[in-house]
């Protein structure tokens, strides 16, 4: 039986790699992009049917209701990366990142779940971030948005499993996808945080350049989709098995210092 998947943000990075991997596995794949008509070579995966979606626009999200009613798998991958001192983060920027990273993906899941439940089969994968488990200075809004979708997934998972529908979160660590070039930043010219902020961004970009590939994350997403009983969380990259083991064993303050020193911040 051919399964149907919708992957958001399928024109670059993890979304593009996941869409391509799922086509290769025999799925019918819909992929979203803000403007599919303007996609350049290299921004399309062969065999993927592209649809328009702007997660910042509620009407655009609702326009996918008909497609979502028939999908078996939803991969909520699209999102925004953001950095700012909390003191200087504009309210509009905070509201936007939660619309794009939380409210939009949750609404897509709400539109897909009735059909999955009725067919008694479904998978919803939230692509989060290890920053949800390992918070970092100047990344508070982004980390909070990723922690929020993990919270939705973990809680709602218990509601849907009796109907054969499984929700899971994939938490990547550092990934070499060029996302640093698209990260939004908010900081005042005269900010007292400027030196610290710049040092963190330099380390973040360095870690991402040395990170795992989008294809490696895509393989984890596919494994979660194809599992008979998907786990609540799959972490991949940044030495995830060892790092999460240390988190369980070490005091929280030590874990916090390790995370910040990895990003050249002294705490």
UniProtKB/TrEMBL annotation:
Coiled coil: none annotated. SUPFAM superfamilies: NAD(P)-binding Rossmann-fold domains. The keyword Oxidoreductase applies. Keywords: Oxidoreductase. It comes from the Bacteria. Pfam families: adh_short (PF00106). GO terms for cellular component: membrane. One of its GO terms (molecular function) is oxidoreductase activity. InterPro entries: NAD(P)-bd_dom_sf, Sc_DH/Rdtase_CS, SDR_fam. Gene3D superfamilies: NAD(P)-binding Rossmann-like Domain. Belongs to the short-chain dehydrogenases/reductases (SDR) family. PANTHER family: DEHYDROGENASE/REDUCTASE SDR FAMILY MEMBER 7B, DEHYDROGENASE_REDUCTASE SDR FAMILY MEMBER 7B. This is Short-chain dehydrogenase.
């Amino acid at each position: 039986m051919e399964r149907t998947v919708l992957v958001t943000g399928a024109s670059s990075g993890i979304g593009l790699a996941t869409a391509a991997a799922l086509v290769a596995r025999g799925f019918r794949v819909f992929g979203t992009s803000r403007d599919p008509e303007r996609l350049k070579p290299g921004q399309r995966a062969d065999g993927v049917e592209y649809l328009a979606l702007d997660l910042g626009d509620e009407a655009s999200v609702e326009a996918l209701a008909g497609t979502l009613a028939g999908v078996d798998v939803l991969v909520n991958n699209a999102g925004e990366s953001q950095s700012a001192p909390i003191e200087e983060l504009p309210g509009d920027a905070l509201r936007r990142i939660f619309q794009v990273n939380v409210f939009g993906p949750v609404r897509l899941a709400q539109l897909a779940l009735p059909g999955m439940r009725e067919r008694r089969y479904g998978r919803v994968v939230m692509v989060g971030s290890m920053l949800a488990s390992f918070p970092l200075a100047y990344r508070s809004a982004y980390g909070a948005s990723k922690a929020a979708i993990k919270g939705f997934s973990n809680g709602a998972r218990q509601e849907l499993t009796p109907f054969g529908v499984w929700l899971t979160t994939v938490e990547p660590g550092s990934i070499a996808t060029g996302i640093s070039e698209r990260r939004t930043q908010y900081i005042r010219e005269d900010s007292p945080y400027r030196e610290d902020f710049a040092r963190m961004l330099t380390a973040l970009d360095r870690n991402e350049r040395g990170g795992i590939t989008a294809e490696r994350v895509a393989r984890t997403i596919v494994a979660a989709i194809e599992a008979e009983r998907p786990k609540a969380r799959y972490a991949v990259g940044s030495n995830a098995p060892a790092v999460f083991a240390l988190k369980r064993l070490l005091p929280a303050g030590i874990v916090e210092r390790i995370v910040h020193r990895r990003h050249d911040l002294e705490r």
